[in-house]
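Schema walk-through. Below, the input block comes first and the output block second. Nothing else is stored per chain. Lengths vary across the set, and this one has 137 residues.
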Amino acid sequence: MLVKFSCFFHFIFSVITCYEDYFALNWIGRASGEVNMSLSGVVKFASKTEKLVQNEVILQLMDSFSNPVLSMQSKLKLEIDSINKSDFTIGAFMDNNDGSYRGQYMIKNVGSYELCVLFNGNYLLPCPCDINAYSSK
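--- output ---
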């Protein structure tokens, strides 16, 4: 009976260990403090802007436990594209110390643009963010 109990205990322990490994990899997906792309993204941008005016895009980085992730500004990149290949200026991202980041840009010509933010080479949603630049005159 002791052998059967020992085998049963070993089996239960193995199942629990496998379940813990599965849960860690598939449910949580990432450790605390690591950016979860499905919980992170662009939260504010101007869909209409005047040309030659400094604008900003705000994004939020969260981990799998919905905690804010700080000090990741060096891994953020802003991409802007336009149909007419107009000119624009892109600034660096600033950490707001609450998991949100502010990126600045200025569009120099009237037209339609698409803005995307990348974290570590991966696009944050929504992407693209459509922007229309107009003239004040």
